[in-house]
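Supplementary Methods, section 5.1.

A reviewer requested that the exact input to the structure prediction be made available. We therefore reproduce it here, unchanged from the version used in the analyses.
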Amino acid sequence: MCKNVLHFGEYQTADMFEHCGHLRTGYSVFDRFPLSFAEAPAGKATKADILELIKRDPFVTPEAIATALNVKREWVSRNIAEMIKGGAITQTVKSDGNINRVIEPSADEILKRLPPPKVTDILLRYSYQKRAEASGPDLLPTSRPFCVKLVGLEKEGRVYTRADIEKISARVGYNVFLRTGGFWNNAGTVEIHCRHYWMTEILIKEK
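The structure derived from this sequence is encoded token-by-token as follows.
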């Protein structure tokens, strides 16, 4: 749960992340991937698994669900669309393009007809990482305080849900998920984001 922070300067925005998310303690990293990646082959997941992952993170993407369940993205998107049409999921698109999904009480009828979800020991989280195309170390002498803070938190093992990041975005007035630390002069090309980005992680509970 995020604590309420009243000021929204760069230092204060970075401090918000210290009071959100959680450490990876008790979980090991099963996989990491950027937002675009090859789809996995079809597995034996059910709608119950999709509902469980959406319940944990309303902003989770079909790509992340597909990788966590080892299924194709099309299968996830098709099943989400069916559950939206059937009233089990309500989907809203925010002004910044992010999609929020809410599990409705009618989803209980679906769950009664399906085996229990298999993803009880799986978490989908995001960590602050250097982009693969960015040369050099994680931090440079010119790195912004925001990035210095977030990279330090990542080294401590702190990860976040998409909902954590979106809550902070709503409070500071810009999309922290897309912008990260701010503008980056990438070999003469000015990017709207910095040298870092939010890496998707699949965490498995340690036995």
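The longest strand covers residues 196-205. These observations are discussed further in the main text.
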